[in-house]
Structures are given as C-alpha cells and as structure tokens.
Specification:
Helices cover 40% and strands 18% of the residues. It has six helices and five strands, in the order ααααββββαβα. The strands form two sheets. A three-stranded mixed sheet has the order 4-3-5, with no helix packed on it. A hairpin with a 2-residue loop joins strand 1 and strand 2. The protein is globular. Belongs to the Fur family. GO terms for molecular function: DNA-binding transcription factor activity; transcription cis-regulatory region binding; zinc ion binding. It comes from Pontibacillus marinus BH030004 = DSM 16465. It is found in: Cytoplasm.
C-alpha cells in the first residue's frame, strides 16, 4: 500500500486527513521493516515537538483497524509496517533491525489437511532471525 492509497482509504472510511497522519504513513512507507510506536514517536518529534504517545497509539490502532498497517509482536512489543499490496506471501523478520523479506512459500496446504473439520478464516506465517547485515555486526 502506498501513502496516497492509505489516505484515500482513511477518507473513504470517514476519517479526517491531517498532516500528522500523512507523516506517520510516510514514515512507514519509507521503511522496509517493522517499527515500534517509540520509533515513530522519535521520528515525529522532529516536526511535532508536543506529539504524545496517546496520539501515536490511537493512530496506529486506527491504521491497523483499517488494514493500512500490519502488526506483529516481537519480544512483548507491537511492531508495525505498511500493509503489503502485492500477491499472497509471508515474511522473514530480522529480530535486530526489523527488516523484512518476503517469503513466497505458504504452509497452508499441509496445515489445511490437519484442520479439515475447521473453518480457517485467515492466517499469518512469520519466520524470525537475523538478516545478513545483523549477522555480521
């Protein structure tokens, strides 16, 4: 998802456009990694000195609810990234820097066999480790 599409989605769902929201979305659009609310707050404080954690969390929650951001939990803390628009895939996530890499293999065909009597509504598959850069650091 790109920023323009995300802003359009906000508008279509009845939410206001603000410069803060656009800047938040641009931050995630420029990153190829999962980032925390604290990362976003530090970035936003350059232009919005009085921005609060409440504002950050409220908007992050809204972006997740509107399917603009993806969320995962790493070491007990939520991490966010801009929602992927492309084909079905999963992610490798670096535990040090948060970088992501698409994984095009999906384990659902074998999992569905084990859950034949269950109605699967969605799934998420993530692999955690260290990217090549963090392995050498």
């Amino acid at each position: 998802m790109n920023v323009d599409r995300a802003l359009q989605q906000l508008k279509e769902q009845g939410h206001k456009y603000t410069d803060k929201r656009e800047d938040m979305l641009r931050y995630f659009d420029q990153e190829n990694s999962y980032r925390t609310a604290r990362d976003l707050l530090e970035n936003m404080r350059e232009n919005y000195t009085n921005i609060s954690f409440d504002t950050i969390y409220r908007n992050l929650h809204l972006f997740v609810e509107l399917n603009i951001l993806e969320v995962t939990e790493l070491e007990g803390e939520k991490h966010f990234r801009i929602k992927c628009d492309s084909h079905h895939h999963h992610h490798f996530i670096c535990l040090d820097c948060g970088q992501t890499k698409e994984i095009h293999t999906c384990p659902m065909s074998s999992v569905k066999q084990e859950l034949q009597d269950f109605a699967i509504e969605d799934h998420k598959f993530e692999i955690y480790g260290k990217c090549p850069t963090c392995q050498t650091a």
